[in-house]
């Protein structure tokens, strides 16, 4: 099977069955060659329904999870987005076509597989963001690509009003993907999206401070 056919099958058999119908999301996932961001030894598995190891104990999220989180954020093109966990840069690149500005943070910049055509609205940072990232202003959306035992309050406070945050909370074998929306200066709503298990965000297990 060609990788192009595998990409089409990913949309039909993994993304849509997970009730991802946002056409902007589907188009963006179709446009980006996931194999270009996959370690060479796993290139033929780029579109498989699995979490692909990328080094340092990190993984690429499965396509289904990526599709669900992108749809939940409901980006329309003008937003500023904070991504915690750049990884290889695949999801970062997808986000760059759905929002105005992407600030992406990772401890391991050597995992990144951007080429010379990296979108200009991606701004990469290196550091430990397990307990927030306050070097920039607030954001309209936040994506945390590793699981957290609980959510530090700083992330909630880094959201603009009506901003949305995607996170996977809990500890294996019970974790829940949630969407949190800032309603007022001191109020946030929380929606449970689905159950899953993904590796923890590095250093997040050391000193959880806040449970939402």
Task: For this entry, give a set of tags.
212 residues, alpha/beta, Rossmann fold, two-stranded antiparallel ribbon
Task: Describe this structure as you would to a colleague.
The chain is α/β, with parallel strands linked by helices. It has a single domain, classed as Rossmann fold. The protein has helices at about 5-15, 25-30, 65-75, 90-95, 155; strands at about 50-55, 60, 80-85, 100-105, 120-125, 140-145, 160-170, 175-185, 185-195. The strands form 2 sheets. It has a 7-stranded mixed β-sheet. It starts with a helix and ends in a 17-residue tail after the last strand. Keywords: Methyltransferase, Transferase. This is Protein-L-isoaspartate O-methyltransferase.
Structural topology:
Elements: H1 3-15, H2 23-31, E1 52-55, E2 58-60, H3 63-73, E3 80-84, H4 90-96, E4 101-106, E5 122-126, E6 139-144, H5 153-157, E7 159-171, E8 174-184, E9 187-195
Parallel strand pairs: 3-4, 3-6, 4-5, 6-7
Antiparallel strand pairs: 1-2, 7-8, 8-9
Q: Determine the N-to-C terminus distance.
A: 45 Å
CATH class: Alpha Beta
Query: How are the strands ordered across the major sheet?
Result: 5-4-3-6-7-8-9
According to CATH, the fold-level topology is: Rossmann fold
Instruction: Report the mean per-residue pLDDT as an integer.
Output: 93
Q: Secondary-structure element sequence?
A: HHEEHEHEEEHEEE
Structural class: alpha/beta
Helix content percent band: 10-25%
Shape: globular
